[in-house]
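Interim report to the steering committee. The following record documents the input for G-protein coupled receptors family 1 profile domain-containing protein (357 residues).
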Amino acid sequence: MDTLSDDTEGCYFNRTVKFFYEASGKNISDHWRRRDYVIVTLGMSVCFIVIFSNLLVIGAILKNRRFHFPIYYLLGNLALADLFSGVSYLHLMFHTGPWTIKLSKHQWFVRQALIDTSLTASVLNLLAVAVERHQTIFNMQLHSKMSTRRVFVIIVFIWLVAIIMGLVPTMGWHCLCNLENCSTMAPMYSRSYLVFWAILNLLTFTIMLAVYTRIFVYVRRKSKQMSQHTTQMRHRETVMNLMKTVSLILGCFVLCWTPGLVVLLLDGLRCDMCKVLRYEKYCLVLAECNSFVNPIIYSFRDRDMRRTFRDILCCLCRRGGNNQGNSEVHFNTLEHEVLSESNGADVSNHHHNNHSH
C-alpha cells in the first residue's frame, strides 16, 4: 500500500511500484490495450520456443558421448542460461503491462533480477568459451585437457557470479532514496547501475571479439604451415568448423544484445533526446530471440548434433544407436580420427590376409 511516511528521511520504501513509474515518467496503464495483448502473445510464443529448443540442446549433449568435452559442457551451460532466460522472460510476460502496478517492490526486483542473471550467465559462459578456445587452439589441441570436475567448478562459479550481479540492485544499488537518479526504462534502478552494467557487458563483448579475432588469425597462419597429411588436414578442418560455430554463437549474441545495452546506457546517461522507451520493447524481444538462435546454429553447423536432435524428437533409440557409429561428425577429436583411420587400416589388412589364405 502506498503511504506518505518514509522509513528514513529522503527514502520511499513504503511507496508502490506505480509511484516510481510516475516519478520517472514511464507511463503505466491500468487496463489492457491491444498492444499489450500483442506483446504478451508474441512474448509467450518466443518463450515456449526458447525453452523447448534449449532443452533439446541440453538433452543432445547429455545423450551423445561425442559431446562429452569441456567445450560442449560450456555450450550446454550456455543453453541452460538461454533456458533460464526463456523462463525469466515468461515470468516477465505474466508480470507486465497492467499487471505491473499490482507488483510489490520485492516482486518487481525479482522480475528484473531474473533477466539480469540470465544475461550475466550467458556473457560469462561466452567468456569462458573464449578462454577455453584460446587455450586449446594455441596449444594445438582440439579439446581442452581440463578435467570434468574443473569444468563444473567453473560452471558453478559462473552461476554464483550471475546470481550476485542480478541481486546487486536489490542489495542497495537502487534509487529508492534518490528519485532524481531513477532510470526511465527500469524506474527503481539507479541510472549509475545501468551505466555500470551496460559498459561492463559491452566491454566484455569487445574483449571476446578481440580474443576470437586473434584466434582466427593464428589458426589461419598455422594452417598454412601444416603439411597436406590427411590427419592434419582433418584436424585443421575440425578446428575451423568448431571455431566458426562458436564465433557464430558469439556474433549473434552480440548483435541481439548490443542494441538493448546501448539503449540502457543512453537511459543511464540521461539522453532525453533518445526516446529510449520507444525502442525498449523491440530491444527486449530481439535480445530474447537470441536464446533460440543457438539451437538453429547447432543444427546447421553440426550433423551429429542435428541427428541427435532428430533421435530425441523421434524417440528412436535403436535407430540412434545404429547411426551413432556411422554418423559424419564435424567436431570430432583428433584421437578419434586417428583411431578411425587405424581401425580402417586394420579391417583392410584383415580382409587382405583372409584373401591370401
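Confidence is low (pLDDT under 50) at residues 1-5, 323-352. The committee is asked to note this result when reviewing the revised timeline.
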